Amino acid sequence: MTRIGGDEFAVLLTGIRDAEAAETIASALTRMLARPVSVEGMMLSVEASVGIACLPEDGETVDELLRRADVAMYQAKKTHSGYRRYRADEDSSTLAHMALMADLHGALDQGDISLCYQPQIDLETGRIVAFEALARWNHPVLGLLAPDAFIGAVEQSGRIGDFTRAVLREALSTGGRWRADGARVGISVNLFARNLLEPDLATEIAQLLLANRMPASALTLEITERAVVMESATTVRSLAALHDLGVRLAVDDFGTGYCALNVLGQFDLHEVKIDQSFVRNLAGDRANSAIVRATIALAHDLGLRVVAEGVEDSETINALSVLGCDLAQGTFISPPGSAEQATALLRDAGRLATPRSADVLPFRRPAGERSGTAAPARRAYPATDGI
Ligand code: C2E
Ligand code: CA
Ligand code: CA
User: Fold this and answer.
1) Which residues on adjacent β-strands are paired with residue 187?
2) Are residues 248 and 342 in the same domain?
3) Contact 120, 129 (CB under 8 A)
4) Are residues 69 and 132 in the same domain?
5) Which numbered ligand comes closest to the C-alpha of 329?
6) What is the domain-level CATH number for residue 206?
7) pLDDT at residue number 229
8) Which among 307, 344, 349 is positioned nearest to 325, based on CA atoms?
9) Looking at the CA of 196, which ligand is closest?
10) Are residues 192 and 235 in the same domain?
11) Is residue 102 part of a domain?
12) Cβ distance 319 to 285 under 8 Å?
């Protein structure tokens, strides 16, 4: 056995009968590595993935065998299957992915990751309260890539810290400019679960806020439900440090993970973002409507603000308004746009270079003030002219 770099090891098996024997050993290896170990009182477990390439079927040279074992290992990682034998038909998609991962290092170093911004509006006033920053990669060959095409590569590249830092830098710089011009809007940034394992996260964010003259309350960090549920001692410490800093914390994609509802009460959260899958067809779907109503009631009882995402039509926005939802985000209001387009939205809404009378942040409804079930009838939302 030898270490071939970073967290990658190669095992050479000689004298085995066939590929099945290699699979048996790989399976035993992954089981052994998966056993939790105690480090300074904290239980840690690692998920290892093994790729298998056999001589002579899968290659005749060391380089070829190693490369193909790597391809199989990536597939094992992607499918969480533990181990995988090399398959030629999986080679090209894996190679494309690996190439993307290699390009990502350059993109991060050269600043090819850009952001677009999507407004969130207050359903009561129609005003823009905040923008969510959404990453885009301007790839030199493939063109502008949406996160679906590259977020997986970011997670596997080992550079999620650099990626999130780049996103935070850009988002806070844009947010700082808007605020300097008089628009008191907030900015939301998505975090990876693993960002919460970085001990310096809160300190770095504090420095960026300071450098961009942004109050902490103007930054919302969106963390997926899954990340919050995967609580570890470090995650809890990170969330507490961020909370102490004064930034807002939102649970993203609410309803899609394994979130027991009590998680909402366990952490110092500020916001719940109801996943698009419940928001879509809200007006015509009784089950979704019941889920959204219950989520709003619970969140309000806990003093949390509720954002509905994926609002695509006027029926949905009206239904949300009746249910007492606080904020809405979606293509019906505005699709994500460049910083310039977002600035134009603010300018059209008269929010730039105006006196500071129209502050809508921070926004935190007192517990129990308004529950979804007892929501007063709200006015119909006036299409998009409210922003
Ligand atoms: P998300 O955080 O749930 O972001 C909302 C996604 O829904 C965005 O997709 C947005 O463009 C899309 N969307 C907005 N309005 C509508 C609508 O009315 N209908 C529909 N069908 N979709 C709508 P996008 O930009 O492709 O981002 C996809 C996901 O990638 C995000 O989902 C987020 O999980 C992740 N992501 C994006 N940027 C970052 C980032 O900087 N860091 C991290 N960690 N993840 C990011
Ligand atoms: Ca989000
Ligand atoms: Ca979401």
Assistant:
1) 131, 219
2) yes
3) yes
4) no
5) 1
6) 3.20.20.450
7) 66
8) 307
9) 1
10) yes
11) no
12) no
Q: What is the CATH number of the domain that holds 42?
A: 3.30.70.270
List pLDDT tens digits, range 12-54: 999 888 999 999 999 999 998 888 888 767 677 778 899 999 9
Could you tell me the distance, in angstroms and rounded to a whole number, from the CA of residue 131 to the centre of ligand 2? 11
β-strands 113-122, 128-139 pairing: antiparallel
Structure-block tokens of residue 5: 């770099």
**Residue 118 structural domain:** 107-386
Instruction: For residue 100, tell me if it sits in a domain.
Output: no
Instruction: Work out how many domains the chain is built from and give that number.
Output: 2
Q: Are 194 and 319 contained in the same domain?
A: yes
Instruction: Specify if 17 maps to a domain.
Output: yes
Q: Using CA of residue 172, residue 129, residue 144, residue 71, what is the dihedral sign?
A: positive
Residue 324: Cβ within 10 Å count:
23
Q: Are 297 and 367 in contact (CB under 8 A)?
A: no
Of all protein residues, whose CA lies closest to atom 15 belonging to ligand 1? 330
List, for residues 122-179, the tens digit of each pLDDT value. 999 999 999 999 999 999 999 999 999 999 889 877 789 999 999 999 999 999 999 9
Number of C-beta neighbours around residue 12 at 10 A: 9
The residue among 86, 121, 149 that closes a domain is 86
Q: Which residue has the tokens 């949905």?
A: 316
Do 160 and 81 share a structural domain? no
How much of the chain, in percent, has pLDDT values that exceed 70?
A: 87
Q: How far is the CA of 176 from the centre of ligand 2 (A)?
A: 20
Alpha-carbon distances, residue 165 vs 171, 192, 228, 375 (angstroms): 10, 11, 20, 40
